[in-house]
TrEMBL record:
EC number: 5.3.1.24
Species per Swiss-Prot/TrEMBL record: Pseudomethylobacillus aquaticus
Gene this chain is encoded by: trpF
Biological process, per Gene Ontology: L-tryptophan biosynthetic process
Protein name: N-(5'-phosphoribosyl)anthranilate isomerase
EC category: isomerase
Length: 207
């Protein structure tokens, strides 16, 4: 099965279109004010309107209020919600939208329990644990911590770039990979050549 790719932290229409041209299956829009990749609702709507058919638009939230998520949903046609904080299952389900749940992985993280608790998530996005950051660390975690029999599709994140994504796919065999900093020229500004190189790395992976 082909490994899907989400390019996250898109802040400009031209970067979104370059991601699509490179072959990305999804783009991610960050609605978390402390992130340097955060976009306004107005900019997000502009980006989403430029995305062609069959490419998913994902909205990333970190412990947001219900009102904040609803405000975004009224203005931006999101296909999928990504919850990247400590959101409990009932919170994630209340919007009646497909969602994925991010998990910060470290020694002792019970991913089997996460898969059971978020049994209706469309996937678990596994990212690197950092005490002060909910994501975007640019650091790889120990892929050996991922159980082979996880009940939900795995979306692998954390420090991926063109020169390690093939190895990551060969070892983990995830449903999808997620990249942000690994394809940037500066925080929030994507690099078309790096996105293309990342996609080649995904295509060269042996699974």
């Amino acid at each position: 099965m082909r490994t899907r790719v989400k390019i996250c932290g898109i802040t400009r229409v031209e970067d979104a279109l370059a991601a699509v041209a490179a072959g990305a299956d999804a783009i991610g829009l960050v609605f978390y004010a402390p992130s340097p990749r955060c976009v306004s609702v107005e900019r997000a709507a502009e980006i989403a309107a430029a995305i062609p058919a069959f490419v998913s638009v994902v909205g990333l939230f970190v412990d947001a209020s219900r009102d904040q998520v609803e405000q975004v949903l009224q203005a931006v046609p999101l296909d999928l919600l990504q919850f990247h904080g400590e959101e409990p299952p009932d919170y994630c389900r209340q919007f009646a939208r497909p969602y994925i749940k991010a998990v910060a992985v470290r020694e002792g993280t019970n991913l089997l329990q996460y898969a059971a608790d978020y049994h209706d998530a469309r996937g678990l996005l596994l990212d690197t644990y950092h005490a002060a950051m909910p994501g975007g660390t640019g650091q790889v975690f120990d892929w050996g911590l991922i159980p082979a029999d996880l009940a939900r599709p795995v979306i692998l994140a954390g420090g991926l770039q063109a020169d390690n994504v093939a190895q990551a796919i060969a070892q983990v065999r995830p449903y999808a990979v997620d990249v942000s900093g690994g394809v940037e020229q500066s925080k929030g500004i994507k690099d078309a050549a790096r996105m293309a190189a990342f996609m080649r790395g995904v295509g060269n992976a042996s699974v």
